[in-house]
Design goal:
The complex is a heterodimer of chains A (151) and B (748).
Chain A: E1 2-8, E2 11-17, H1 23-30, E3 49-52, E4 55-58, E5 71-73, H2 85-92, H3 102-115, H4 121-128, H5 138-150
Helix pairs in contact in A: 2-5
Chain B: E1 2-5, E2 7-8, E3 11-12, E4 14-18, E5 24-28, E6 53-57, E7 63-67, H1 76-88, E8 95-99, H2 116-144, E9 151-154, E10 157-160, E11 165-168, H3 169-177, E12 184-187, H4 205-209, E13 225-230, E14 237-243, H5 245-248, E15 253-260, E16 278-284, H6 287-296, E17 298-303, E18 307-313, E19 316-322, H7 329-341, E20 345-350, H8 353-358, E21 362-370, E22 382-387, E23 392-396, H9 401-412, E24 419-423, H10 437-449, E25 453-456, H11 459-464, E26 471-480, E27 486-496, E28 513-520, H12 535-552, H13 557-570, H14 581-594, E29 605-613, E30 616-627, E31 630-641, H15 648-667, E32 673-674, E33 677-678, E34 697-702, H16 717-732
Parallel strand pairs in B: 7-8, 13-25, 23-24, 27-28, 31-34
Antiparallel strand pairs in B: 1-12, 2-3, 4-5, 5-6, 6-7, 9-10, 10-11, 13-16, 14-17, 15-16, 18-19, 20-28, 21-26, 22-23, 22-25, 26-27, 29-30, 30-31, 32-33
Helix pairs in contact in B: 1-2, 2-3, 9-10, 12-16, 13-14, 15-16
The chains are: A alpha+beta (151), B alpha+beta (748).
The complex binds FE2/S2 (inorganic) cluster (FES) (2 copies).
Chain lengths: 151, 748
């Protein structure tokens, strides 16, 4: 066990746990932030995507000890009222079906657009290819990322 | 105008009450069909009388519709209340949709009907809205002392034109609640629909994009423990012993013990499929701690001997045999070939097919196969349970609670009314969440711990614990006469462990000499429904085969199908053809137009397919292009006839999803076994379709219809396998008979 001072969604929090604990489970089990989802646990599906200093990161394989001073942002901390341009684009295209993968999709899209605000279609596909959606909402995700890139 | 009865025999489908502080509430059932003429309430299932939906009209005019249906992606939580609001005649913007409070006894009959939800709910929902509107009109007529027939409604306002009086629904709601529920109410003419047929956004959209939508995985209770199970690594094996010496001492671990999910002698309910009944349970404080302890457990397994299970199915009691042994996919293929070579069970025969196949004719003969598939819902299986001495509380994602609650009651020795199953949002279902052995497991673990527990399957547990789409095989023969007419058709289909055959489907009814046979091979690998069960294989086999027969006959594949459908309409062969040739032809005709079928574009390879299942008709053209030697789906044009479409954009979303899913499963979907062990246990080995492989565009068209809504979530899934196979042939010059296409003659 060890104590970690984390900065999650702009708030400082302290946790005392096994340094190997993946951030995914720290968020879900210890901080009650359950918007970040578990899908595979082996960095294959993207459901657990968070931002570490703005960089999209798979939290299922990220030990809490590796976070250091980096700021963690989860879907809950993306915007005050769900009005981030990417969230708005998601609503405009009515993207979700079951919705389980969507927090991860949105977090991936936000980080990607920050580095590449006006991506080509191919760049969108490459950036989003690591996020699985079993319901098959890929076409709407593609369109929503495009819309967000224009706003 | 249609009049519907709000009662059957002496029992009513509805109940009205006054709300404390003004306003009215109508409780209604989401299930009844009001078309029954019978006066005996005995003939209707009792759940049709369970009030499980609520409609509240507040004195401020705010309308709340409480949906008992948990959402699993079919958008029922938006579309079903739209139907109520349509008949009620209110402004959708003023409607609030709530998930029914989960802890009331009134909501025990929740269901996810998949494609069937809207179909089953249609009448009940319309009746609820119409009844409330009718009662509000009556209340206004009494208050204003005018004939009720002179009162009209629009957007939540009652109006008496002659006197110029008007009132919002809220103002009349309290008075309306005191009026007895009318025995009969008029429904709107579907042509007058203003809301149904318009696109409305998912009522949970905002919650989803902000991470607030709660799934079973997210369920939490103070003091709740986390549990996981360890199940045999291979089908054919069972638990022998375990050593938890080190695991037990690990931090956060509360207990490790075995459970027996179902007793050997228990007569199983239809959805109680599960071969791993003896499990080791690991319980601890946090997920990470339990995961670690699970890895540290040393478990010994042994082979099981063959056993039989008795099961209650809709068709009566059934005995299922599970053979001993560790099965291999390579052997499965040989077994299927051997079985297919023997005569099958004849399921339908028209004319003299055997004799006709002996005549000099051109005979085309082909075999199709498909592997087991895993459902792979993005949210792995999980359930919360809190079992105490006198009651059991459960919560989580589940598709068929009415079956599971019976099993749970028997297993825990608690009466049904002491069992409360709450349903959360589902992170995908596709049939998998009907087989709720994990719910029983969670309850047993909680009982043993005497504490609230959430059972979580890891992805690996989820993928390797069974309930797969069966492996299938189909052999087709067709005979063409000198004029290229299809004179005989034969299908023999089978699977491990179930047959996929639908004997009465197209082209049955369109061919004079027809034979349908099937067979099945026992297995200890468990299977269950998977998005459009059986159709998801028969469509690719049949639609690929018809494509090849059309080619042999020198006919355009759409014209060839249309000719057969014309024959099925004008001179139907045999009885019980389970499709409507007009609606079938209708989707093909519209598809021709919408896809510009006649136009040839260089570099675009097109395949067509059409299929009927779940009461709906779907036809698709898939356009492939070759990019660096690899096929890429450029576009799918899809025509759907599913009756009235309640929420077109949501319906389009579902259809797109079904198409993407179908392409993915046809190309990559495969679960194989070696020595009984599933060879894929996570997404590094089990390939799911990703964005790059999804079609560039999907163009969905709905046939205009005033037929009551039919299935939507499933029917667009099966045909796309066939359209893809046929387009691949055009692109590569090679027919693809075996799924997954990638790895079976197609690189990628
Ligand atoms: S849960 Fe982290 S990538 Fe799947
Ligand atoms: S919306 Fe269901 S997995 Fe993506």
């Amino acid at each position: 066990m060890a104590i970690f001072n984390l900065n999650v969604n702009g708030k400082k929090t302290q946790v005392d746990l096994d340094p190997a604990t993946p951030v995914l489970w720290v968020l879900r089990d210890h901080l009650n932030l359950v918007g970040t989802k578990y899908g595979c646990g082996i960095a294959q599906c993207g459901a657990c995507t968070i931002h570490l200093d703005g960089v999209a990161t798979r939290s299922c394989l990220l030990p809490v000890a590796a976070v250091g001073n980096k700021a963690i942002t989860t879907i809950e901390g993306l915007s005050e009222n769900g009005d981030h341009p990417v969230q708005k684009a998601w609503l405009e295209h009515d993207v979700p079906q079951c919705g389980y993968c969507q927090a991860g999709q949105i977090m991936t899209a936000v980080a990607f657009l920050k580095n590449n605000p006006h991506p080509s279609d191919e760049e969108i596909e490459t950036a989003m290819n690591g996020n699985l959606c079993r319901c098959g909402t890929y076409l709407r995700i593609r369109a929503a990322v495009k819309t967000a890139s224009k706003s | 105008m249609t009049l519907v009865k709000t009662f059957n025999g002496r029992r009513s489908f509805l109940k009205a009450t006054a709300l404390a502080g003004g306003g009215m509430m109508i409780g209604f059932s989401w299930l009844p069909s009001c078309q029954s003429d019978s006066n005996a309430d005995l003939t209707l299932p009792k759940e049709w009388f369970d009030l499980n939906g609520f409609l509240k009209i507040g004195d401020n005019g705010l309308i709340t519709i409480m949906s008992p249906n948990p959402e699993g992606g079919q958008n029922v939580k938006t579309s079903m209340p739209m139907i109520v609001a349509e008949e009620l005649d209110v402004d959708w913007e003023k409607v609030v949709v709530e998930q029914a409070p989960l802890d009331t006894k009134l909501y025990t009959r929740q269901f996810i009907g998949g494609s069937q939800a809207i179909r089953q709910g249609w009448h009940g929902l319309r009746m609820a809205g119409a009844t409330a509107r009718h009662m509000l009109k009556q209340a206004a007529a009494q208050a204003w002392q005018v004939p009720e027939t002179e009162i009209t409604t629009a957007e939540g306002v009652l109006l008496h034109e002659k006197s110029g009086r008007s009132a919002g629904y809220g103002e009349m709601a309290a008075a309306a609640a005191r009026i007895p529920v009318p025995k009969e109410v008029p429904l709107k003419d579907t042509k007058e629909f203003k809301l149904v047929g318009t696109s409305r956004k998912n009522v949970d959209g905002k919650k989803i994009v902000t991470g607030q939508a709660l799934f079973g995985m997210d369920y939490h209770r103070p003091g709740m423990l986390i549990a996981m199970i360890v199940h045999p690594p291979a089908f054919g094996m069972k638990l022998k012993s375990f050593d938890d010496q080190s695991a037990r001492k690990m931090p956060g671990i509360r207990d490790i013990f075995t459970i027996k999910a179902l007793q050997d002698e228990y007569e199983r309910q239809y959805f109680d499929t599960c071969t791993f009944t003896d499990l080791v349970a690991v319980v601890g404080e946090t997920t990470w701690e339990v995961l670690n302890a699970k890895k540290a457990l040393v478990v010994e397994w042994e082979l099981f001997t063959a056993y039989t299970e008795s099961k209650l199915t809709p068709g009566g009691k059934q005995t299922v045999r599970f053979p001993a042994g560790l099965e291999n996919s390579s052997e499965h293929i040989l077994q299927m070939e051997k079985e297919a070579a023997k005569p099958g069970k004849v399921r339908r025969k028209d004319g003299e097919p055997e004799a006709v196949f002996k005549l000099p004719a051109r005979v085309i003969e082909r075999t199709y196969t498909a592997p087991f598939l895993a459902h792979n819902c993005m949210e792995p299986m999980n359930f919360f349970a809190h079992v105490t001495a006198d009651k059991a509380e459960l919560a989580g994602p589940l598709q068929k609670p009415e079956y599971t609650e019976k099993t749970l009651s028997a297993r825990l020795g608690l009466p049904l009314e002491k069992i409360d199953i709450q349903m959360t949002r589902l992170g995908g279902g596709y049939g998998r969440r009907s087989y709720a052995h994990w719910l029983v497991e969670a309850a047993l673990i909680s009982q043993k711990m005497n504490a609230p527990v959430k059972l979580i399957y890891t992805r690996e547990d989820d993928m390797t614990s069974g309930i797969y789409r069966p492996a299938y095989h189909a052999h087709y023969r067709a005979a063409l006469d000198a004029e290229n007419n299809l004179i005989a058709f034969q299908v023999k289909a089978g699977g491990i462990p179930e047959s996929p055959l639908y004997a009465d489907r197209f082209p049955a009814g369109a061919v004079d000499h027809y034979l349908a046979e099937d067979w099945a091979i026992e297995s200890n690998i468990t299977v269950g429904s998977f998005r459009a069960p059986r159709s998801n294989f028969m469509a690719v086999a049949e639609q690929s085969f018809l494509d090849e027969v059309a080619e042999a006959a020198g006919k355009d594949p759409i014209e060839f199908r249309l000719e057969l459908l014309k024959k099925a309409k004008n001179h139907p062969v045999g009885k019980n053809n389970d499709y409507d040739p007009d609606r079938y032809a209708g989707v093909l005709e519209l598809l021709k137009e919408k896809s510009n079928w006649e136009e040839e574009i260089p570099g675009i390879y097109r395949g067509v397919s059409a299929y009927f299942c779940h009461n709906s008709y779907v036809a698709q053209v898939l356009d492939l292009v070759m990019e660096q030697g690899k096929p890429k789906v450029a576009k799918v044009t899809c025509v759907v006839d599913c009756g009235i479409v309640v929420n077109p954009d949501a319906a389009r979303n579902l259809t797109e999803g079904a198409i993407v899913d179908g392409i993915g499963n046809a190309m990559y979907g495969s679960m194989t076994f070696r020595q009984g062990e599933p060879e894929m246990n996570n997404f590094d080995k089990y390939r799911l379709i990703r964005m790059e492989e999804a079609p560039g565009a999907i163009d969905v068209h709905f046939v205009k219809s005033d037929i009551d809504p039919t299935g939507l979530g499933e029917p667009a899934f099966p045909p796309v396998f066939g359209a893809l196979a046929n387009a691949l042939y055009k692109a590569t010059g090679k027919r693809h008979y075996h799924q997954p296409f990638i790895g079976n003659g197609l690189a990628g």
